[in-house]
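Problem 12. The chain below contains 1098 residues. Write out its predicted structure in token notation.
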Amino acid sequence: MKHGSSIQNNGGGYRFVASLLAVVALIVASLIPPSVHVAKADDDASAASVTPTAYAANYGQLVNAINGSQSAVIAITDNIAFTEQITLKGKKITLVSDASACSTACELTYASASDFSLFEVIGDSSLTFGGGTEDTNKLSFSNHSNGRLVQVGSANDRGTVTINGGTYNKNGGTYNKNGSTSNTTGDGNIAYVFKNGNLTINGGDFKNNYASAASGNTTIGVTRSGGSVVRSSGSVTINGGTFEENRTGENGQDNLDFHGGGAIWSEGTLIVNGGSFSANKSYAVNVKSEYKYKRPAGGGAIWAAGRLVVNGGTFQDNWQMGNEDLYGTGGGAIYFGDGTKDTSYNGSMVINGGTFDSNRSMQDGGAIFVTWNCTAVFQQGTFVNNWSNRLGGAVYTEEDSVSYVTNAVAYENYAGHFGGGLWLCPSGKGVTSDHGGMALFDNEANTRYDRTETGAEITQDIKDGKKYRHSGSQNRGVSGAGDDFSIMYPSKSEQTNYFQLSVEWFTGDHVTWHDDGEPSQSANGYLYGVNDLSVNSMERLTEGNEYTSDATLDPGPANNIYHGYGLKVTKFGSDQAKQNAKDAFITFTKNTARLSGGAFGSNGTVDFVKVYNVSWNKISSESSNMLSGSEWLLVAQNDGAVKSGPIHLDFGNATDCTTTVSATGSVSAAPEEGVWCKVPDSVTDSYYSEFKGKYVTVVADNSGIDKDSENGQFLVKGLRDGTYYLKEYRAPDGYVKSEKTYTFAIKEDHSPTISETDGTPLSNNLITNTPYGGVSWSKVDSTDGMTVLSGSEWKLQSVGSDGNAQDITGADGKAITITDCIEADKCSASQNNPYQDVDSTKDSFKLTYLPLGTYRLVETKAPDGYDLPDDATVYYTFTIKENDDRMNAKLYKADGVTEVTENKVPNDRTKGSVIWYKTDSTKEGKGDDARLKGSEWSLTQTKEKDNDIAIGKRKAITVTDCISDDDTKCPTDSQNPQNPTDRDGKAGEFQLKNLDWGTYELVETKAPAGFHKSETTYTFVIDKDHTSPAEIQIKNGTDPVTGNIITNTPITVNSLPFTGTGSQTPRMFLPYVLGTVGAGLAVGLGLHVARRRMARQG
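Solution.
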């Protein structure tokens, strides 16, 4: 590779063990099938929170941080200038901005050369940009005339990238020069996604990016085609983000393969669940094209082929600007397909939601253009105020395309000549299935709408810098024909067209149609000439026929009908009919086409399909309140003669669901929200096994295909006759997930009843969830109130209405012991087993999935060095109620009134005890004959745990030797609560009890009678690991005193007095003197040896 610092897993990462454990826990959670939801420590934490495990202020530090761990969250603290590409292989990396350092933005930029992508993500790697709060989403890649942020995958490898936020644009100016003619890296200035790559965009600003239409090779060897933000051959999901004022260049004959797509170009899978696309523009053109070439050009926001699903999002004020040729050009917001390719390449498009507002096309399809050899489904969504300079104010579909339109309404749309609502070209065909139809009313076809998007008359080809062309067309064709519908005469040889006219709408309301002008035999409705727009002399609405029953309009020589049709709905079966129709799944209103098809125009086949919806509500089993946040698995059968589910399942739009394998080897499906897939036969997980071979999708509350915006209320539209199943995929937070499978059948029923599988119907389609709660606590030192303690164990008791508490027991009938879990991958619980600590933080506890009720928390094992309280009098109570705080229940002391501050449960330190012995240095052992009675001592505490006690505040306490046959009769000092007087009645043996933790000095102040006093200062320490006498080691400096035996040396007599006189002379006493001196020397030597021995012993 020419550029690149390849960063792989090389065994590093020991510095990030804690973060790795957290990541492993999340991965394990994601692999667990949803049949039993598993709680983790962060279940109730903000999903947006991120905790950096490393920091980087420059390129070198970033490389080192990535290289140092297989998985890391790296906070960027300054602008990073790249000297070469970073390739991730086998890495899981998240990049966020540092909240304090990146006040405006932290730029990812280039040091010098910029002909490479900053990142390449391949293999099992994943790279995430941003996450958390606004402060950690300030990464930026902007103001680059060359280069790219990230390359996702490679020609032969996969890769995964997620963008959660940040800015990817030029701050100011008409457009960003990202991708200008000097951009040697090609399209997709933010992301280039290869075939096996996967990109998800959840947020971020993508503004003023530009895709050059210049010819020539790029550094990755792909011809420029469009997409200034993303170019993809892989899989892209858009859940959010702002795509604004992104543009393409205008290609010439040197790059006829340039397609467009101001923001996104995709030939793989593109799923749009949300986000805002506004003021994006495509300048792609068909240069000197002919109809037979069918080259694509357009898509102000998106050009796509393969698979496109739009479940939501807003498309507003996007433009398709090219107007060089009449064919294959259009799509103010979206252009779908490539007319030069076959159906296997083009695939299918599903419009299942979203709002298309005020998009413009200088050719066809103000909002959407569907080209040759494509399949499209228009199932749900809103099209309003869109405009085209020719055909299809909102939507245009080309020849040899097949489109399905379900339960649609078009009202108050406008065309300059034919079909104010719906228009079919000379080769267009309209099929009505089960009175599906498109409810058409109050539309208008009139030459006064042959104008610009602003309503200005087109008196010259170029106006306000835009090439409208064909000025004067508004003066042709008298006043037009067909306010609501028009079909043209099949003018080409062997060409046929037809429309199945239905007098019953999908609502069940009946209407009456009437001829409304008559397009002439020469009129085609898509060219601007006099004959192309001519109408016969029929008076609109006063001449012609009235249609009160279904009919097939089939102009052409085969039926000797040498004209087209223009019609209008003139009568309604009820006053409520219009309002009923406005409840349609897909709405077209206020759209305008300069020539034909104010709402919808087609040169292909359009099948109007009648479909139905289903609704249900999630409520609490306790309060009946609506519950938000649940997700559901919706299941449909679609094989053989059974064709349930949405219409697009019929033509292979859905693939097999992705599968995952758990640690136990269970194979589970992994469907996506709002995207249908088929459950493969390989699944073994019990949750999915019953649905093998069926199609499933995930329905999330207030998202994707849920079209009811109220919390806890679900509405799924676009379902055909058949049998369906529902199963809860994720319960609302704080509620037990239902394990039941529900079913419903649709058979010409707008409101199917949901039942349990045994046939028991649900009242008003209400599905209940049982609330649960949680409690967290920690153990702290009662003395300082801060030190967090480890090693405690607990049991939980349920308290009945009578106030009596019963142990919660396991399968063995014994009370369940709750221990502190500190291994992240083992800290899990389920609704079937809630009595496990799910907080992997050491010294902290968290229980979840607790049913409503009152509980008693009882400590069964204290942390080492701390007292275990009496469980009869010391325990803690809490109550789980259905309220906003039930996941964080408050603890109260045994009186039920006193709240435990911050749920920090205190433990008293175990008091210490020390023993020592006074022994004659000349005697061995600990026998009574060696003990010395009568010594006195001074005890002074010099430290409280870890802190020194100021000298002026130290208190010396006198300790005297207690001699009593009964230890309990040893006197106590009422003035000293510590009671450090001798508690051992044996002479010469000392024991002090009830000593606080700390460091002590022990000094002998009075020696036993006949013995020398020790001049040594002895020390000992009492802490959590040293409280019992056997653990206390008295020291002489740093030397331990063996057996805590402190010896005293006897006092000896070294001279006697002389008596009497006589003849003794000094010489006579010389032997005695010498003997005495020798004895003295011997005694001195003995004392020296004894003292050395005593020093060693204590």
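Discussion. Residues 8-48, 171-180, 1055-1079, 1087-1098 have pLDDT under 50 and may be disordered. Students who got a different answer should revisit the alignment rule from Section 12.3.
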